[in-house]
């Protein structure tokens, strides 16, 4: 049961990452760097 929940969360995280525009993610990454 725990494994299934983890799998579902992983899929959700991947989906969120894909939905975020590349430029927006780049700006966020640059902000973290500085």
By oligomeric state, this entry counts as single chain
The major β-sheet equals:
none
* Topology order in helix (H) and strand (E) letters: HH
Strand content: under 5%
Distance between the termini: 41 Å
Shape: elongated
Arithmetic mean of pLDDT: 68
Q: Helical element count?
A: 2
Rg computed from alpha carbons, rounded to a whole number of angstroms: 13 Å
Pick out the low-confidence regions. none
Structural category: mainly alpha
Percent helix range:
over 70%
Number of strands: 0
Protein described:
This protein is mainly alpha-helical and 34 residues long. The protein contains two helices and no strands. The longest helix is centred in the first third of the chain and has 18 residues, at 2-19. The protein is elongated and about 40 Å long. The relative contact order is 0.11. Residues 7-17 have a biased composition (Basic and acidic residues).
Which features would summarize this protein structure in a list?
single chain, about 35 residues, mainly alpha, elongated
What's a concise summary of this model?
The chain is mainly α and 34 residues long. It has 2 helices and no strands. It starts with a helix and ends with a helix.
Topology, please?
Elements: H1 2-19, H2 22-33
């Amino acid at each position: 049961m725990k494994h299934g929940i983890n799998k579902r969360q992983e899929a959700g995280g991947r989906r969120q990452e894909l939905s975020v525009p590349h430029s927006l993610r780049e700006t966020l990454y640059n902000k973290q760097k500085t």
